[in-house]
TrEMBL record:
<dbReference type="InterPro" id="IPR008988">
    <property type="entry name" value="Transcriptional_repressor_C"/>
</dbReference>
<dbReference type="Pfam" id="PF04023">
    <property type="entry name" value="FeoA"/>
</dbReference>
<feature type="domain" description="Ferrous iron transporter FeoA-like">
    <location>
        <begin position="15"/>
        <end position="93"/>
    </location>
</feature>
<dbReference type="InterPro" id="IPR007167">
    <property type="entry name" value="Fe-transptr_FeoA-like"/>
</dbReference>
<dbReference type="InterPro" id="IPR052713">
    <property type="entry name" value="FeoA"/>
</dbReference>
<dbReference type="InterPro" id="IPR038157">
    <property type="entry name" value="FeoA_core_dom"/>
</dbReference>
<keyword id="KW-0408">Iron</keyword>
<dbReference type="GO" id="GO:0046914">
    <property type="term" value="F:transition metal ion binding"/>
</dbReference>
<protein>
    <recommendedName>
        <fullName>Ferrous iron transporter FeoA-like domain-containing protein</fullName>
    </recommendedName>
</protein>
Length: 99
């Protein structure tokens, strides 16, 4: 996982994107660094889509009834991610988030 700035940690709760719900916003702080070609491919793909440290994200929608997949806004684009893919994205959610 990419290391977040220590000053950011004082004001934010760290979790992964899969734990957010519709309407939540956060900042990406890193991606999972698992071994294996499939994990490396997924990490590279997420980075190509814009899930990079410091990027603001917003949960735009969740599927009904299982909430999987979820629609995530990154920049001016919206992507559908499965919860297992979203769990690979580490985020920090500030107490005073507004989007």
């Amino acid at each position: 996982m990419s290391q977040p700035p220590s000053t950011f940690l004082k004001t934010a709760a760290i979790s992964n994107l899969a734990q957010l719900r519709k309407g939540d916003s956060a900042t990406v702080i890193g991606l999972a660094d698992d071994e294996g070609s499939a994990a490396t491919f997924m990490k590279n793909r997420l980075q190509e889509l814009g899930f990079t440290p410091g990027e603001r994200i917003h949960v735009h929608a969740e599927a009904f009834p299982c909430k999987d997949p979820m629609a995530i806004r990154v920049g001016n684009s919206i992507f559908a991610l499965r919860r297992r893919e979203a769990a690979r994205i580490y985020i920090a959610q500030n107490d005073n988030e507004s989007d």
